[in-house]
Design brief:
293 residues; alpha/beta; TIM Barrel; two-stranded parallel ribbon; 10 strands
Length: 293
């Protein structure tokens, strides 16, 4: 059914019209995760043809200097730091497309697993695990053979060498230490996840960290305060919408593209039309929380 909707919105001209009118004067952030190289080649080439792709740091520089950005400015981001992200490097170098990858500092460079991808058995439980207090989540994950600190026989994240290889083409930023749901964490855990992830990425990989991507798009006023205290200059959400030169830098909006597998899906999601329709049908479970836990 989704494919039919994507095709209808593309070939009716609705997605094109939305892109060339509503989206034209805005700054759009897109979110990918674990895109395969073949999809990346097609998707990034499409985005380069139809948008003015800029780096995250270009956007931040423009905000600071109040410099006008090009029409249909687009920032491409990836969350987590999946091992497959290494396959993007030849594509990025060939297309000369800037991207930002947000890293989980205590998962990259190790054999640890992302808790939400540990094994097939636990996948049906992932969404419910996001909605419970952090300590309870960690206890439940133990039943699936997962602990945060354990190293496994297979790796799921980028290695230190791969991060070093990609530095010239990728802007690496922070996605906390272990990817908890921040509003479900107590104050000390949230502080560690936000502050120490920046410190560890800078010390271990010699990166310049100034941006935090809130895991799962969940955040609270406390998390924003901690991010400012840690020295971040902005925070990226998964709240649907566009950005501009006067946006709240700690609530930057992104459209989740979910590693689009067809041009129709990418076109409809990248312009923001899909998110608008989805939001009208039901409110997403992630986003700002008035208070943690």
């Amino acid at each position: 059914m989704s494919n039919i909707i994507y095709k209808a919105l593309r070939y009716s001209g609705a997605a094109w019209l939305w892109r060339e009118t509503v989206q034209r004067g805005k700054v759009t952030f897109l979110l990918f995760h674990d895109m395969e190289a073949a999809d990346a080649e097609r998707n990034l080439a499409y985005l380069k043809r139809h948008y003015s792709v800029i780096g995250l740091q270009d956007y931040l520089d423009a905000v600071r200097s109040k410099t006008r950005l090009p029409r249909k400015a687009l920032v491409i981001t990836f969350d987590d730091g999946h091992a497959s992200n290494r396959s993007l490097l030849p594509v990025l170098e060939r297309l000369q497309v800037p991207v930002t990858i947000f890293l989980c500092s205590e998962v990259v460079g190790t054999q640890r697993h992302f808790w939400f991808r540990h094994n097939e058995e636990m996948k049906p439980q992932v969404e419910s695990l996001k909605r419970i207090p952090n300590e309870e989540r960690l206890r439940k994950l133990e039943a699936f053979g997962f602990t945060q600190e354990q190293e496994y026989s297979d790796r799921q994240a980028l290695t230190a060498n791969e991060i070093e290889e990609m530095k010239g083409a990728v802007d690496f930023q922070s996605h906390t230490c272990f990817h908890p749901i921040l509003p479900q964490c107590g104050d000390s855990t949230a502080r560690h996840e936000i502050i120490d992830s920046k410190k560890h990425l800078e010390e271990r990989f010699q990166l310049n960290i100034n941006t935090l991507s809130y895991p799962n798009g969940d955040y609270s006023e406390r998390d924003i305060r901690l991010a400012k205290e840690a020295g971040y200059t902005c925070g990226v959400t998964v709240d649907s919408g566009y950005n501009g030169l006067h946006s709240d830098l700690f609530r930057l909006k992104r459209f989740s593209v979910n590693d689009a597998h067809t041009t129709e899906e990418l076109m409809v999601k990248a312009c923001g039309l899909y998110a608008l329709i989805k939001h009208k049908l039901h409110k997403p479970p992630y986003g700002f929380k008035t208070s943690p836990q």
